[in-house]
Design a protein that fits this description.
The complex is a heterodimer of chains A (231) and B (253). Chain A is of the alpha/beta class. Chain A has a domain of 65 residues. Chain A has 7 helices and 9 strands, in the order E-E-E-H-E-E-H-H-H-E-H-E-H-E-E-H. In chain A, helix 2 packs across helix 3, helix 2 packs across helix 4 and helix 3 crosses helix 4. The two termini of chain A are 31 Å apart. With 253 residues, chain B is mainly α. Chain B has one domain. In chain B, helix 3 runs antiparallel to helix 7. The longest helix of chain B is centred in the middle third of the chain and has 27 residues. The chains are: A alpha/beta (231), B mainly alpha (253). The interface between A and B is medium-sized, with 28 and 25 residues. Chain A: Its EC number is 3.6.3.40. Chain A: Pfam families: ABC_tran (PF00005).
Chain lengths: 231, 253
């Protein structure tokens, strides 16, 4: 199925955290252990695992936010971003200024965000509120703005941690639809989710991550069945 | 550093300035009012209570306070630069040195505005510009680099050893008292003077006074030493940042 070169490949990747064990004493604890897999261009990979299995840590490694303490990760000339909402929002500046700041933190050029601003305003449905300070927004409005900005991201690989839809019922539908469209397009996507339906709908392949190391990688149904039996 | 990051950090610094000023009624005016209030407090203590002032004490004190404030606020802000952005750096990759640099820009903009006002104040008080004023930009650049290296160094080590933050506040206070902000270092006893004169902030504050108030050229040898020291420490700091760039997000949990 994938005859192209992998876009990211991981070999025996592990991440350890420092845990305090008294005055000036620490011990290591491995949040992620021995993960090996390749991510191919255009595929959608799902990641499942129990709480604390290291799924979010794995996404941080893929995004290049943290470097592994063990093993090797190889990126083949690609931009990888974690889909994050409301990154770097400052409460006292306007929605428009926050959109630019947040967009730049997500790796979009300032001029591109300014160009996309009408789309952001339209998608968020904020109207003239865009020029009001964000601390006057409701939680829902903030979520709308956050999503609309993140929706403008266009990295080669997009990493999604549980967030598909946000806000009220109407916006949740709209944002989830936008996400699904993004995922089912030719984009390479890695998605962490506990929702089996989402995974079944969107993913080509699933990776089951466990504290002791990767368990299974394979077709959706096979992995989900053994995952559910492991309870 | 590529252009994208410069643009980002500039936008972040100016947005934070805007956010800061919209948090109070006086807004931007606070950048001027705050040092003025600060100055009034010291004026009361040293001129009125201790009677230590004498003629020319106000410009002398103002100069010291303005110059110190730039250093002090950026360094103590730098100490929190990474820890206060822990949520941000866990979500996106950013070269971490951008965080203290953003605080440095923020503090520098404020300093330049207040410095312009101080020069205006001197001119209105009958100080005549001297040829030596031409060396002012050089002193500003050297202080900028000195602040950059100290704030950057502190920013890079505080996440690794948070206890340093607690020591730092006291070190800054000590440094404030021995940098000659409100007294003239050349008047202290000889045996102490030699040590006090080694303090880079004392050298810098003295240079501003010599240039602006006395109209003389500063001690270029001492300034050169400060510059050399700053570049050395900047180099070390750069490597600490590079080494821990993708480790900081893990430590800050």
């Amino acid at each position: 199925m994938y005859n192209s070169e992998p876009i990211i490949s991981l070999k025996n990747v592990g991440v350890s955290y420092r845990r305090r064990a008294g005055v000036l004493r620490w011990n290591k604890y491995w949040a992620l252990n021995d993960i090996t897999f390749d991510l191919y261009k255009g595929e959608t990979l799902g990641i499942i695992g129990r709480n604390g299995a290291g799924k979010s840590t794995l996404l941080q490694v893929l995004a290049g936010i943290i470097s592994p303490d063990k093993g090797v990760i190889t990126h083949n000339e690609s931009t990888v971003s974690l889909l994050s909402l409301q990154v770097g929002f400052l409460p006292h500046i306007t929605g428009r200024e926050n959109a630019i700041l947040s967009g730049m933190l997500l790796g979009i050029n300032k001029s591109e965000i300014e160009k996309a601003m009408p789309k952001i305003i339209e998608f968020s449905g904020l109207g003239e509120f865009i020029d009001q300070p964000v601390n006057s927004y409701s939680t829902g409005m903030r979520a709308r703005l956050g999503f609309s900005v993140a929706n403008q991201m266009d990295p080669d690989v997009i990493l999604v941690d549980e967030v598909l839809g946000v806000g009220d019922v109407e916006f949740k539908k709209k944002s989830a639809a936008a996400m699904r469209e993004k995922i089912s397009s030719n984009k390479t996507v890695v998605i962490v989710s506990h929702d089996e339906k989402t995974l079944k709908d969107l993913c080509d392949r699933i990776l089951w991550v466990d504290r002791k190391g990767m368990c299974v990688e394979g077709g959706i149904d096979d992995v989900l069945i053994s995952y559910n039996q492991s309870y | 550093m590529n252009r994208f990051y410069w643009e980002l950090i500039w936008y972040k610094a100016t947005s934070e300035l805007k956010a800061e000023s919209s948090r109070s009624y006086l807004g931007f005016l606070w950048w001027i009012v705050e040092p003025a209030l600060y100055m009034v407090a010291f004026y009361i203590v040293f001129e009125l209570v201790f009677q230590r002032g004498g003629p020319g004490f106000i410009p002398f004190l103002l100069c010291g306070l303005i110059v110190w404030k730039w250093f002090g606020s950026v360094v103590s802000g730098g100490a929190n630069a990474i820890t206060s952005n822990s949520a941000l750096i866990r979500q996106v990759y950013l070269p971490k040195y951008l965080l203290p640099v953003s605080i440095l820009f923020n503090g520098t903009i404020k300093f330049l505005i207040v410095m312009c006002l101080f020069v205006l104040f001197l001119l209105l008080n009958g100080v005549v510009p001297a040829l030596a004023w031409l060396s002012l930009p050089l002193v500003i650049i050297i202080q900028f680099l000195f602040i950059a290296c100290i704030a950057g160094f502190v920013a890079s080590v505080v996440p690794l050893l948070p206890d340093i933050k607690l020591i730092l506040d006291n070190v800054l206070m000590l440094l404030f008292f021995i940098s000659g902000v409100f007294f003239d270092i050349s008047l202290v006893p000889e045996n102490v003077k030699a040590y006090l004169a080694l303090n880079p902030m004392a050298v810098i504050i003295e240079s501003y006074r010599v240039i602006l108030i006395n109209g003389n050229w500063p001690n270029f040898i001492m300034l050169g030493l400060v510059l050399f020291l700053s570049i050395l420490l900047l180099y070390v700091t750069y490597h600490i940042f590079k080494h821990y760039d993708r480790v900081y997000p893990k430590i800050l949990i």
